[in-house]
Design brief:
Elements (H helix, E strand, L loop, with lengths): L1 H28 L5 H27 L3 H36 L6 H23 L3 E8 L11 E5 L10 H13 L4 E5 L10 H5 L11 E4 L2 H6 L1 H8 L5 E2 L3 E5 L2 E5 L12 H5 L12 E4 L6 H6 L4 E4 L11 H8 L5 E5 L2 E5 L17 E8 L14
Parallel strand pairs: 1-12, 2-3, 3-4, 4-5, 7-8, 8-9, 9-11
Antiparallel strand pairs: 2-12, 6-7, 10-11
Helix pairs in contact: 1-2, 1-3, 2-3, 3-4
C-alpha cells in the first residue's frame, strides 16, 4: 500500500510539473500575451489535469453513457498529454539549438509542427487500439498427441472490458476469432478492467465463441481489482470454463490454468512452485500452461511445460513505456521464445488499460498452430505477422 501511495504521489507531481511546462511552452511559442488568454489556458490545463481522476471517480459512482464518455475523454487526455509533453520538450531543444547556431527560429511554425505531429500520433494510437490484428504463431510441443497435430489455440488476453471496451467491441473480437475456426480458445487474464456495473451484458458475446475443445479462462490482476468471486459468478453464466489452479485433460493435451495471486494471499512467484503439486498434474505429459504474467519461466520449464501462454505486459502499450516493460520482463515481455522443449508466448493483448490508445505496438488475437518437434524447426524468436 505504501509503494502504491508513493507511486501515485510521484505520478501526480510529475504530471503537474508536465502541465506547467506545457503551459509555458504554449505561451512562449505561440506568443500568448493577453492575461485573459493566459488565464483561460491555465484553467483549461488545470481542468484537463484533474479530468482523469474526476472521470474515474464519476464513472465508478454512476455507470452511464455520460460518465463513460467523460472517462474516455479524461484518460484519452492523459495519453495525448504524454505526446504533447514530448513535443514541448522538443520545442525547447530546437530553440536551444537555434540559439547556439545563431539561427532565427519561427516559434509559431516550430510549435505548430511539433504539436501537430504529437496530436496526429495520438489519433493514430486511438484508432490502432480499436483494431486488433491476428498474429499467426506455430509452436512445437514434445510428445504432442497425433490428434492435436495441426490444431489451433486462439489466445485472447487483456481485453479489459469496462468503461471503454464494451459488448460491441467484444462482439467484433468474437467474430474475428470464430473466423479463424479455432479448436480451443484461452483467455489469459484481465478480461475485465475492474469496474462494477452490469457485467452480464459485457460478457454476453462470449456465448457466441465456437471452439470444439472449449473456451477457458484464468484470472489476471484486474480480476483481483474487480473481485475474483464477482468475475467467476459472471462467467458461470456463459460457456466459458474457469480454471482456478486446475488441470484438465483435453483429448490427450494437459491444460493447466493457474490463477493470478490475490493481494495478501500468495507471492507472484509461488505459482511456479505449486505447479507440480496440482491435483491431476502429470509431469512429462504434453502441457499448455496458462498464467497471466510471463514469470517463473525456469520453474515452468523444469516442470515439463511445453507451452506457456501469458499476457499482462501490453507490450508497453504506449511508446516509450515499452522500454520499461522490457526492463522488467526482459526478452519475455512479448512474443514467442523457446528454451529447449519449453516455449512461452506473451501476447500484447487485445484491449488497453488507462489511455485508450496504443502506439509503437498493435493489439492482437493470437492464432497458435500446434506441431510436433520433428515437423517444426526449433526457433527461439518470435514468429508472426
Amino acid at each position: 500500500m505504501l509503494n502504491f501511495r508513493l507511486i501515485l504521489t510521484v505520478s501526480l507531481v510529475v504530471a503537474l510539473l508536465g502541465h506547467i511546462l506545457l503551459y509555458f511552452t504554449l505561451v512562449r511559442f505561440f506568443g500568448i500575451s493577453k492575461k485573459a488568454q493566459k488565464r483561460g489556458l491555465a484553467g483549461l490545463l488545470a481542468f484537463l489535469y484533474i479530468s482523469e481522476m474526476l472521470a474515474s471517480y464519476a464513472a465508478h459512482l454512476y455507470d452511464n453513457a455520460l460518465t463513460r464518455a467523460y472517462y474516455f475523454f479524461g484518460w484519452s487526455w492523459l495519453g495525448l498529454f504524454l505526446y504533447l509533453l514530448m513535443a514541448a520538450i522538443a520545442c525547447w531543444l530546437v530553440l536551444g539549438m537555434a540559439r547556439l547556431t545563431g539561427h532565427r527560429l519561427n516559434t509559431v511554425v516550430t510549435g505548430a509542427l511539433l504539436f501537430s505531429i504529437a496530436f496526429a500520433y495520438s489519433v493514430y494510437g486511438t484508432w490502432n487500439a480499436t483494431n486488433p490484428q491476428v498474429t499467426d504463431v506455430r509452436v512445437s510441443i514434445k510428445g504432442l498427441p497425433d490428434n492435436w497435430k495441426g490444431k489451433t489455440i486462439v489466445q485472447l488476453s487483456d481485453v479489459h472490458l469496462g468503461f471503454v471496451y464494451r459488448a460491441d467491441f467484444l462482439s467484433r473480437v468474437v467474430a474475428e476469432v470464430n473466423g479463424l475456426r479455432p479448436d480451443m480458445v484461452v483467455i489469459t487474464g484481465d478480461l475485465f478492467d475492474g469496474m462494477d456495473g452490469d457485467l452480464d451484458v459485457l460478457v454476453e458475446p462470449l456465448n457466441n465463441l465456437r471452439a470444439p475443445e472449449g473456451v477457458y479462462f484464468i484470472t489476471g490482476n484486474h480480476e483481483n481489482f474487480l473481485g475474483v468471486d464477482k468475475a467467476y459468478s459472471v462467467l458461470k453464466k456463459t460457456g466459458v470454463t474457469v480454471l482456478n489452479d486446475e488441470v484438465r485433460d483435453i483429448d490427450g493435451l494437459q491444460l493447466v490454468g493457474i490463477s493470478y495471486p490475490q493481494r495478501g494471499m500468495r507471492d507472484p512467484k509461488i505459482p511456479g512452485r505449486i505447479l507440480k503439486t496440482l491435483p491431476g498434474f502429470v509431469p512429462g505429459k504434453p502441457t499448455v500452461l496458462l498464467f497471466h504474467a510471463p514469470v517463473f519461466i525456469n520453474e515452468a520449464r523444469d516442470a515439463g511445460v511445453g507451452l506457456q501462454l501469458s499476457g499482462h505486459t501490453h507490450k508497453g502499450q504506449l511508446f516509450p513505456i515499452w522500454f520499461i516493460t522490457e526492463r522488467i520482463y526482459k526478452e519475455y515481455a512479448y512474443g514467442l521464445h523457446r528454451l529447449g522443449d519449453y516455449s512461452i508466448y506473451t501476447s500484447s493483448g487485445v484491449g488497453t488499460w488507462g489511455p485508450p490508445m496504443r502506439t509503437g505496438n498493435t493489439p492482437e488475437i493470437v492464432d497458435i498452430m500446434l506441431d510436433q518437434p520433428s515437423d517444426l524447426k526449433q526457433k527461439t524468436t518470435f514468429q508472426g505477422r
